[in-house]
Automatic annotation (TrEMBL):
SUPFAM superfamilies: Cysteine proteinases (SSF54001). The keyword Signal applies. Residues 1-19 form the signal peptide. Residues 67-193 form the DUF3857 domain. InterPro entries: DUF3857, Papain-like_cys_pep_sf. This is DUF3857 domain-containing protein. Coiled coil: none annotated. Keywords: Signal. It comes from the Bacteria. Pfam families: DUF3857.
Length: 657
């Protein structure tokens, strides 16, 4: 990440590359003949040219400052999979009674037919605008007449009434780009913090002085004209186990730090944490809600009647809030309704629930603080300067003796001390009513753990009958409890499991500790497995990998520039004991394996043994680190490739004459 102060670059020597837009629909034969091998032979489409400008201007209608952004792009479509690039969505923000205004939309498809360039323009009547939430809207259109080899092009202008966040620019997208260029005109009165994000480097940058770019109150203001260029940009491919793509795509972001008024005097907009602390603690929807312990004062005797120490008190309070205030589906760091109203209506957003939990814990004379964070799909936090709008979730930190526990009562199936996976995203900021705020690591709280014990017997009629007992904790248990809840009943949940195993029948079932969240979820199943080979009745085929079978590698890129973020460590153990008749012998089995990742990053073990007509199979899969660096990616990919290859082998038994 590089922090660039634009105003300090005004006197840089002008570079040779000139910032310039390209003629609309001015397609060349070179572009027409371009193959997808130029950057990525797997590409379904490619950006030929992309150009954008942004500048601060006065709105002629109300004389307010706006950021005016112009965008122009030309894309070549290689095949039908690339047609998706013709479905355009332009996001817009809503700021109270103001909204980003989009104008000058035009789009065209150019095809080369019978030796001629033929254009199909977008019908303006087929441009649609819709409000998607209280704070966002979007404009959509589909570029017409797409064919293999089509070149599409579109441009638009968007004006934003909010100049704090200058228009960002994304160099990287889901298709490769040959040339991406962005020009930012920033008045000398304004100083923005500028961050280059992502693994790729700029091909070129330039700073120029642009005279009299803006006139305010009769005074001409000069601008810095900043040009950023990146070429031959690979596509950003999203893969499993990652946080928000915005964290890793190469992009330029701007945030207003301070500005100078025409009349003189400097105004600082970048606040300190001391400022943020004061604002949050005095906010009616945040700090005031943390202080409402009186709402729970009369309830405490009943809530705490069976408790013996501070930890049991905290668990009792947590269980009460999780049971009595259900999530309404909305998240945020602020209380939406008010803690008292949420308690009375038994419903609220994450702010209502978890700020209410802080008040209840405080009423129980426990030390509870708020921890605000950014969820995994919201992006990482910039710790260089505090921006409260980057936080979108609040949880609770309760301190008991030398230990601290992170709690989220808005997810009622979570055990005490465990956060949902979407919260595991680096660090959060603890907001305390008693002391200054501070950064705190946000971790899962417990290992993701599974254990399977299968004791079975091969009968003389070729059936395998046995009992499978599973023990699950961590996110595995949470996922299963959610699935059971969504299935409406245990019987329906088991029926869905049975449908997923075509050669296996579940004849009996029992699930324990469903509501005892601190205990492992325990499942007991009586299984009947059809194992005979239909063509050779003397042979029995049994896959010991019918449990937690891995058929597809979750890691398929040739290279990955962003971490593999699992959220937490995990462990899965499988133990199988299969008793076979005396007239059967083992003729094939999975290869015994012991492989590991560097620096104790994980291991995979399998072993098959036979003694006294009992086949014992064991498997262990451990991933010991919550996050793997991009440099470890290829090793992790190969690790899974070997596991998948090993799991293709069955235990094969043959009946002796």
């Amino acid at each position: 990440m590089k922090r660039l102060l634009l105003l300090s670059l005004l006197l840089l020597v002008q570079l040779t590359t000139q910032a310039q837009d390209f003629p609309f629909a001015g397609i060349t034969h070179e572009e027409l003949d371009l193959k997808n091998t130029v950057i990525d032979s797997n590409a379904n489409a490619i950006v030929l040219k992309e150009f954008g400008t942004a500048r601060i201007q006065l709105n002629a209608d109300d004389s307010r400052l706006v950021v005016t952004f112009n965008y122009h792009v030309r894309i070549k479509i290689f095949n039908k999979q690339g047609y998706e690039q013709g479905n355009i969505t332009i996001p817009q923000r809503i700021y109270g009674d103001k909204e980003d205004q989009i104008t000058n939309i035009k789009a065209v498809t150019v095809n080369f037919i019978d030796g001629e360039f033929k254009q199909t323009a977008l019908d303006p009547k087929k441009i649609f605008h819709e409000k998607s939430s209280k704070y966002t809207a979007q404009t959509k259109f589909t570029i017409p007449n797409l064919q293999d080899g089509s070149i599409i092009e579109y441009s638009y202008q968007i004006s934003s009434p909010y100049i704090f966040n200058f228009r960002p620019w994304n160099f990287q997208s889901d298709i490769p780009k040959l040339h991406s260029e962005y020009v930012a005109y920033i008045p000398g009165l304004y100083n923005y913090n500028v961050v280059l994000r992502g693994a790729l480097k700029l091909s070129d940058t330039k700073a120029e002085l642009n005279k009299e770019c803006l006139r305010l109150n009769g005074t001409n203001v000069d601008c810095s004209k900043m040009t950023y260029i990146m070429k031959n940009i690979p596509a950003f491919i999203e893969e499993n186990y990652m946080t928000a793509p915005v964290n890793f795509k190469s992009a330029i972001n701007f945030e207003l730090s301070d500005y100078v008024m025409i009349t003189g005097g400097k105004v600082n907009l970048t606040k300190s944490w001391k400022d943020i602390d004061y604002e949050l603690k005095s906010d009616r929807s945040f700090g005031s809600q943390m202080k409402k312990k009186d709402a729970f004062k009369d309830l405490m005797p009943e809530i705490l009647k069976n408790t013996t120490d501070d930890l049991s008190k905290a668990k009792a309070v947590y269980a009460y809030i999780a049971k009595n205030i259900k999530s309404n589906g909305y998240i945020g760091i602020y209380s939406e309704n008010d803690v008292k109203k949420a308690l009375a209506s038994h419903s609220g957003n994450t702010g209502d629930i978890n700020l209410g939990l802080i008040s209840a814990l405080t009423a129980a004379n426990l030390d509870a603080e708020a921890l605000i964070l950014s969820t995994r799909n919201n992006g990482e936090l910039n710790r260089l300067f505090p921006v409260i709008t980057n936080f979108n979730y609040v949880v609770v930190k309760v301190n008991i003796g030398e230990q601290s526990f992170l709690l989220d009562a808005s997810v009622p199936l979570l055990p005490f001390g465990m956060l949902p996976l979407h919260c595991i995203n680096g660090q959060g900021r603890v907001i305390s009513l008693k002391k200054p705020s501070y950064w705190y690591d946000v971790s899962a709280g417990q290992k993701d753990y599974s254990r399977y014990n299968f004791n079975a017997t091969l009968t003389k009629d070729g059936k395998i009958k046995g009992e499978l007992i599973t023990y699950s904790s961590g996110y595995t248990a949470l996922k299963k409890r959610k699935a059971i809840e969504e299935a409406n009943s245990i019987a329906e949940y088991v029926e869905k499991l049975d449908e997923k195993m075509p050669k296996i029948s579940i004849t009996q079932h029992e699930i324990l500790n469903l509501d005892s969240l601190q205990l492992p979820l325990t499942e007991k199943y009586e299984l009947l497995i059809n194992s005979f080979d239909a063509a050779q009745m003397s042979k029995v085929f049994f896959s010991p990998f019918f449990i937690e079978h891995i058929s597809k590698n979750p890691f398929n890129l040739n290279d990955r520039t962003y971490p593999v973020d699992l959220g937490g460590s995990s462990e899965c153990r499988i133990n199988i004991q299969l008793t076979i008749p005396e007239d059967y012998v083992l003729v094939d089995q999975p290869k015994d394996m012991s492989i590991g990742l560097a620096d104790n990053g994980g291991r995979y073990l399998t072993k098959t043994q036979v003694a006294d007509h009992v086949i014992t199979f064991t498997q262990l899969l451990q991933l010991s680190k919550p996050i793997y660096d991009p440099s470890e990616y290829l090793s992790l990919k190969e690790f899974y490739s070997q596991i998948i290859q090993n799991q293709k082998t069955d235990i094969i038994l043959k009946k002796t004459p």
